[in-house]
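Checklist before submission:
- one chain only
- standard amino acids only
- sequence pasted in full

Submission:
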Amino acid sequence: MPSIRTEVRAAPIQGYGPVAKTLHWLVVALLIAQYVFAFTMPDIGRNTVPGALINLHMSFGLTILAVVVVRWLWRIGHPIPLATRDMPSWEQPLARIVHGALYVLLVVSPILGWMNASARDWTITVFGLLQLPHLVAARSALGRQAGDVHTFLAWTLLVLVGLHVLAALYHYFVRNDGVLQRMLPGTGR
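Returned file contents:
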């Protein structure tokens, strides 16, 4: 005798609002541009003079820093649960750790790049409009080391972003639980 299969769907999960979605996708777009600049700009050596690509890299990095701070402040005032009710117990803490690490890296990495540019005694401007002060003294050992850590964290950030994307695709294609749809443009709350 054939069985009748009934599908029970959980109540819709709370989605992100338009401000959170806009800030999220703005950071995504800025990060894509940032990595394009990073991979195409010349290697930075002892006597490098920043050209257009390096200046764009610095400007986009500082813009990412500003947008992430705004996004962080927005999220504090507009919290949203990370998971569905039926998410395995190990997934929610892991998601919180990855989200937290993404936020930290998106803030710390531009600051370390800014410190490195300061140690190189470069003029640091945001799109040629706003000149920023140096965070460390010219030729500072701390600033030079910050550049190495900046590079390491940039690769770490790329790996975490990849994990974040894979997790979103897992939730969409395997779990089909609506987690990805919460952040997609044009989807409701």
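Reviewer check: Residues 82 and 93 are 9 Å apart (CA to CA).
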